[in-house]
Amino acid sequence: MKLTHGVCGITLAAFLTACGGGGSDGYYNQNSDSGSTTTPTTPSTDQELATSVLNSVKQEGKYLFGAYDINNEKLSKGYIDHALDTFAQGPLKLTLDIRKVDLAKYSDHYREKCFIKSTTDYRACYVFKGEEIKTLLTGYSDWDFDITADDLKNIKLASDNISPNLEDYQSNTRIYIFQNENNDKNFQDVTITGAFAYPFQQSWGLEQTKQKRFVLINSTTSDYKITTTTVVQDPETGQPTEKEVTTGAMSVYKDNTSIDGDLYVVQGGSGFNVLINDNPNVPFAEPISFVVNSTPGNTNNATYKVKSGNQQILSLPSITSLEGSRVENEPSTTNAQKFNGSIYLEGQNIFTFKQSLNGTTLNFKHVINGISIEGQSINQNGTVSTTLKTPFMQKFTF
After folding, report:
1. pLDDT mean over 323-341
2. Nearest of 1, 9, 7, 3 to residue 38 by alpha carbon
3. Label partner for 271 (CA 20 to 30 A): which of 69, 292, 293, 395?
4. Are 347 and 378 in contact (CB under 8 A)?
5. What is the DSSP letter of 144?
6. Is residue 393 part of a domain?
7. What is the domain range of residue 273?
8. What gap in Å lies between CA 138 and CA 316, rounded to an integer?
9. How far separated are the first and last CA of the chain, in Å rounded?
10. What pLDDT, on the 0 to 100 scale, is given for residue 245?
């Protein structure tokens, strides 16, 4: 990243600490030390905190400025990048893409009552699960929708105290499309649960470039849960028996009353765990956890809207508990990090902005640990130039 008007990076004590990765000149230490002065809009003490938060966000969340590229192995990917790309390209995109399937061709996937023992949900549904999802949708050929012990072979966690453990990640992906008594609501509610894995590119200057994210929608940290009935083998009799299983899930409902575009509303809080094994400083994989809160009709309502001209708006007013660690040996640090706040992106191709057409703009308005970060980015032939309004006037490029 190149600063054209700013200040040197300051380590944030209250937010993100000592961003590392491969030593003092390591992979995550990519900021230049250029910069003159900024125009402060806050008192000096607040400005120091705002500067620290901003510099840390530039390091860990290029996604927030549109400067993220999943296929660029040389572009470092921080905690915020991993979390937002997982949310956008994973459960959100999957629940949108599955709506393109012609359900009439899949009568064998239909359930008269989706949740057999439920006394609060009598809806029928279509269910798609595991690797069959690849046969329904394009663009997912290198994804894994059925995580087994073999998929996790040669991966370890730092200790037995890490939760979720590797066994928890062993699950398939399940997508439910719900019928409704009201035709206006029919097949507009789509829920995803389970686990999946997908690739990204990142190099630490050694050998490996193709990495993989293992993703679990966590029942412990999700407010939105579903309880399904599955058939398992009884450990005592060896006979098949029914068992109820409760899992974390994410439900995305299309509100067809919206008059200026397609509006998708997240129906409850969903917690995610992302297992990353790219850091060559340590032999173990490092987890990231985050929660996207949402309550329809409330100010923390998480939404995604697509307007005419492919104008997109992602509004996540309540992100909590985004945390993880990234161990570094020279100097020694765990890089323990925590994040909370709100995220707002508006423009064309907001999830792949760095690959958008020359001159495309992205407007953003975030609040990161109490610091407002607002401005606009412009794609200039793959170089993202960003102009901030708050917390102070500043320009920089990625």
Report:
1. 90
2. 7
3. 69
4. no
5. B
6. no
7. 70-351
8. 27
9. 4
10. 81
CB atoms within 10 A of CB 130: 16
- Gyration radius from the chain CA atoms: 22
Confidence check: pLDDT of 21 > 70: no
Is residue 11 included in any domain, yes or no? no
DSSP 2-71: EEEE-------SSSB----SSSTTSTT----------EESS-HHHHHHHHHHHHHHHHH-GGGGT---TT
Is residue 177 over pLDDT 50? Answer: yes
- 178 domain-assigned: yes
Residue 60 within any structural domain of the chain: no
Tokens 């790219």 map to which residue?
278
Cβ–Cβ under 8 Å, residues 374 and 366: yes
DSSP 161: T
- Residue 6 scores a pLDDT above 80: no
Per-residue b or e along 8-23, where b marks 16 or more CB atoms closer than 10 Å to that residue's CB = ebeebeebbbbbbbbe
**pLDDT of res. 232:** 64
Per residue in 180-196, pLDDT tens? Answer: 999 999 999 999 999 99
Q: What is the pLDDT of residue 325?
A: 85
Total structural domains within the chain:
1
Can you tell me the distance from the alpha carbon of 290 to that of 322, in angstroms, rounded to the nearest whole number? 4
Cα separation, 290 vs 340, whole angstroms: 9
In this prediction the pTM is 0.87
* Residue 394 pLDDT class (50, 70, 90 cuts): very high
Judge contact between 125 and 178, C-beta under 8 A. Answer: yes
